[in-house]
Write a structure and sequence with these properties.
The protein has about 90 residues and is an alpha+beta fold. The chain contains 6 helices and 2 strands; from the N terminus they run H-H-H-E-H-E-H-H. It has helices spanning about 1-5, 10-15, 15-20, 45-55, 70, 75-85, and strands at about 30-40, 55-60. A two-stranded parallel ribbon has the order 1-2. The radius of gyration is 16 Å and the shape is flat. About 5% of the residues are buried.
Length: about 90
């Protein structure tokens, strides 16, 4: 982030995200697919917005990990994935 701040390019660095997802509005209908969400420290996820768009059947807020959770906390990640899928059977 500092690199973007020091060079004054923070705004233009977001252009890729804007262009790759031109419609930021939620879809007209909620997706019925069962969805599991794991929130690791540093994630910015708001449950009420996720539930407006997805059929959230599993939500976890985990104590450690981060952006690369499968590498940083593989035990927590695997346990959470297993818990999600066990609830679908």
């Amino acid at each position: 982030m500092a690199l973007y701040w020091f060079t004054g390019t923070a705004g233009t660095s977001g252009r890729l995200y804007k262009e790759s997802a031109p419609d930021w509005a939620p879809p007209a209908e909620r997706d019925p697919t069962p969805t599991g969400i794991a929130v690791f420290p540093g994630d910015s996820t708001v449950r009420r917005y996720a539930e407006q768009v997805h059929n959230v059947v599993h939500w976890s807020e985990l104590p450690r990990g981060g952006h690369y959770a499968a590498l940083q906390a593989p035990d927590l990640f695997v346990a959470d994935v297993r818990e999600f899928f066990s609830g679908l059977a």
